Amino acid sequence: MRRYLVVANQTLAGHQLLDWVRGCREVEPCWFYVVVPATVTQQGTTMAVSEARALARRRLAGAIARLEAEGASVGGEVGDASPLRAVLHVLRRARFDEIVLSTLPAESRWLAEDLPSRVGLVTGLPVTHLVADTGSSGQGFATAG
Questions:
Q1: 111 pairs with which residues across the strands?
Q2: Under the phi-then-psi rule, with left for phi > 0, alpha for psi from -120 to 50, and beta for the rest, what region is 81?
Q3: What is the pLDDT along the chain (145 residues), one digit of tens a residue?
Q4: DSSP 8-state secondary structure symbol assigned to residue 10
Q5: DSSP letter assigned to residue 78
Q6: How many angstroms separate the Cα of 145 from the Cα of each of 21, 101, 111, 126, 131?
Q7: Residue 97: φ, ψ to 5°
Q8: Can you give the residue range of the structural domain that contains 120?
Q9: Which residues contact 18 (CB under 8 A, 6 or more apart)?
């Protein structure tokens, strides 16, 4: 069974991530573990840590429900505010075959920090990067890099 670590926050409700999961499941049995970094700055707004964690929990619950409704085997957790630290914390406890990063488009702080490349270099795992498509109000995605 192929094991995927999915890292996303604001893009969890997008159709591309769900479509990507469907595609993976068509190829082979899979297990998905979703980590939602509790980032305090989102869409130019800074919030309290407790508020960021609560929002991340709601997004995680919604993502797990959507993936389970598709028949996917899935687990997850709210992670550190730093997506890289969140990934590293999960990797200390479990092994994965691939990491999937779902980000906002060009204005994404994760992209500004070159997170996809950094995660790949630090973990040594293949990274699939999904980028939100601004043409569909953040609800659809385009696969990149």
A1: none
A2: alpha
A3: 999 999 999 888 888 899 999 999 999 999 999 999 998 876 667 888 899 999 999 999 999 999 999 999 999 999 999 999 999 999 999 999 999 999 888 677 888 888 999 999 999 999 999 987 754 433 333 333 3
A4: T
A5: E
A6: 17, 11, 12, 11, 9
A7: -90, -25
A8: 2-144
A9: 66, 67, 70
Give the CATH number of the domain where residue 9 resides: 3.40.50.620
Backbone angles phi, psi at 28, to 5 degrees: -165, 165
Q: What angle do CA 9, 14, 16 make, to 5 degrees?
A: 115
Yes or no: say if 67 and 21 are a contact pair by the CB < 8 Å rule: yes
Whole-number Å distance between alpha carbons of 87 and 72: 21
Beta bridge partners of 5: 33, 99
Give the number of other Cβ atoms within 10 Å of residue 121's Cβ: 10
> Which tokens hold the place of 118?
């950094």
Q: CA–CA distance from 56 to each of 30, 98, 113, 126, 127 (Å)?
A: 24, 22, 20, 25, 22
- The number of domains in the chain is 1
